[in-house]
Amino acid sequence: MSTTLTPTLCRDCLTHINTDAQICATCGSTRLVHHAELDELDIAHVDCDAFYASVEKRDDPSLRDKPLIVGHPGGRGVVTTACYIARKFGPRSAMPMFKAMEMCPDAVVVKPNMAKYKEVSQQIRAIFLEATPVIEPVSMDEAYLDLSADTRGDGLTPAWHLARISRRIETDVGISVSIGLSYNRFLAKLASDMEKPRGYSIIPRVGVREFLAPLPVRKINGVGEATAKKMDADGIVTIGDLQALPEAQLVTRYGKFGNRLVQYAKGEGSRRITSSRASKSISAENTFRRDTSSFDVLCEAIEPMCETVANRMVRSKLAGGTVVVKLKTGDFQTLTRNRKLANPTQRADILYQSARQMIEKEANGRAFRLIGVGVADLCSATEADPPDLFGGLA
Amino acid sequence: MKLTIERATLLASLAHVQSVVERRNTIPILSNVLLEADAGLLKLTATDMDLSIVEATPGDISQSGATTTPAHTLYDIVRKLPDGAQVELALGTGDGRLALKAGRSEFVLPCLPREDFPTMADDDLPISFSVAAEALRRLIDKTRFAVSTEETRYYLNGIYLHAAESGGIAMLRAVATDGHRLALVDTPLPDGAANMPGVIVPRKAINELRKLIDETADDIVVSLSETKIRFEFDDAVMSSKLIDGTFPEYQRVIPEGNDKVMEVEAKTFAQAVDRVSTISTEKSRSVKLGLANGLATLIATSPDNGSATEELAVIYESDDMEIGFNSRYLLEMTAQIEGDMAQFVLSDAVSPTLVKDSSDEGVVYVLMPMRV
Fold it and tell me: Which 170-199 residues of chain B touch chain A by CB within 8 A?
């Protein structure tokens, strides 16, 4: 009989303990994730469930129980996203609209509203940023997250952060995501696709070869229709078939990609998350309950944000060379103002002073619905805040 | 208004005033230069509302009058005219435009009425003294590199000019600092300056003034109040608002107890710093200075660029030590040292270092070390 209990995370109340129970002792939920390796995995892929369709359903509850297709109606239109109800009848992304309508004649068709999706995407990005600065967005609705300890240092586990992200996106944004957690990008992405929608899947190290063996090669990122056909002709259908082949043979047949196939088949792959866009800046923002034009209220609002941004810089060992203020007016105009600092900083008070001066120039009676503060032009913390004769802001 | 003026004379005066005019202006008339012709003189005025320069230059005035016209455009035209050209300026009576003729070139420029041109109030400036151009140039040159550009520390965005005392002698003192280095220069206090308030002269005014007095041999009359300063020389007057802020108590950051003295040939040192810093990272620019008996070692390392080391002979007899500096600060400071030797008076790796110029006792530099 096993004496060690398994690390277990409740996706509803975020209780994270070692137990063998199948029901959360805290909230009674059955949505538990457990695995011996749960606390060791740190590379995640987060994918929004039927993103555009979910956003449209969120904004129009009358669509909730109907099959919904987002896309341009008419002869040449294609399906951008089909909701899960519509998918039961066959429609899929990129399918010609007329074909989708043949399969699901009752579907409601909504034209995509990219500006809105972008805004939602940014909202989600901001939630990711609360967990880690190392984010690699793949598109508006999916991203890789590096949750390894050296990106955070807050003592909480990656698994917990992901459950929290998923819960926050549901409560604050109003859509659902599926989460994949593993130890490299390829497996994280594979995991997020395993249990859609509202999934939370992990692929552990132990037994990964056996896990991968029965899966079709199409599951490998980069194996599209053409490659799959070619492989099929070579007698390779599953990842297990790949595992059985000598490396040299795959490289000769498939070139450089052959190397990757070999790696993937073994469950190896890159862990590197290049936050090419996200880590260029760190920011926090907030929407006011009621629009405000008051300089004092605006300044008061940014004070905790400066602290948040400063803390996040310290955690990720980064410093900001430019302070950025973002303001959104009552009529949804977004203004951003930047100021380059003489020296990169990690200090909240320096952020605040800079931001305050920028806000002063903008607070000319206009009402604002949102304010944000951030830093860009990031560099290593060792470059930050050189010793000062007067101790900083003298 | 109608006059004829030598191209070279007009160009010199325009060059002086046009640099006050900001390239981008939300108030159109601030892009203009005010031209006033009367009694054999053409007076040119430019302002950005904080700073104004007025310069008078002789011209052949056939009809007195005044107008304003875009400063940069006028300057560019005059600059491109051939050397030795005679420039005729005439304000059209009908269309209110300014016609410029020189040789076979003709230009017509839009104008705005002179009445709309903002004049800086001619405040009462109770303190007035005269200072040699040479002394003023020295005060500016040896301090302005240390002026802060950080807008959050606006009170450091200028040179602090005040009356002080050094070795029992009354001095006119200029101090500039950005919090990482400090430069202090003394010159004997001119008559009439004893009661002057400490004033912070903004960076832009300092830079414009320095250009204007580059070739002046005469004394400069300085008049000031707590809010405004005026410099008069030759045929020009420059007035500027002062920075409304409190300059920090700089005396307390000038170290007094430092006991390790290192003397080095200033130019050799600067060249070595320059070479080694090629490797420093762009943002921190740090170099490490290692000191041992008679020998200094400059070291720069960067995770991306590799490393550099250079040794040089120095006069140093204290305990071995290592200290880091921003190479840019070292270079900008040594560039102002005129004597053969620079003297570093150090304490430890984290305390401010004092630097002196062997040829000029009235100059003190303070450098805050960096973490290395």
Answer: 177-182
